[in-house]
Amino acid sequence: MPSPADTHLIAIRHGETEWNSEGRFQGHLNSVLNAEGLAQAEALAERLTRERFDLLLSSDLGRALQTASAIALRTGHEILVEPRLRERRMGIFQGLTPEEVRARYPEEYARFKSHDPDYVIPEGESMRQLYERSVACFTELAQCHAGSTLAAVSHGGVLAMLYRHAKAMPLNTPRDFALHNTGVNRFCHRRGTWQLTIWGDVGHLEHALDDPE
Length: 213
Known about the structure:
Blueprint: E1 7-13, H1 18-22, H2 35-48, E2 55-58, H3 62-75, E3 79-81, H4 98-104, H5 106-113, H6 127-144, E4 149-154, H7 156-167, E5 184-190, E6 193-201
Parallel strand pairs: 1-4, 2-3, 2-4
Antiparallel strand pairs: 1-5, 5-6
């Protein structure tokens, strides 16, 4: 049964960026939202005007803040910036495509593709470090704001960690779920555990990107 102490989380990936469209590793570097990403953010913002939520949080990286700003302009919420919602730090891979990484750093790329959760990318993070950071952040937020509904704009890697946690999915298992730009994902924190209720809802994008010409 639902409890007044349940914390509800609307977890959102940022809109599409130039580097997303080019397939580049972004990590802690930034690439602005492209035209499609801006349209996605506007459609998302329009959708959230019809929902009630108490706090709007965002990663401190530009692409997340750009998406959160579109929401804030429509809903009137203040953006609470949370650096722990940053994407995985991709170190020497940042700014490069997978093909460029494979050519420049073949050994490191092979380790990365092995799905070893404890492999630390040079100058970056391991998947386990990202997992621990992400889950700890979301859990602390849920506990501090028990009974509230939180909307958080973050990144694909971060949201994937909460998905894995809620579904008890091992870190070394290849990802078999989609990470949609501006996808709406819903979780509930109840009695100390995370439950996934909806994943990858992009209903707001069905008509947002239609070309009127």
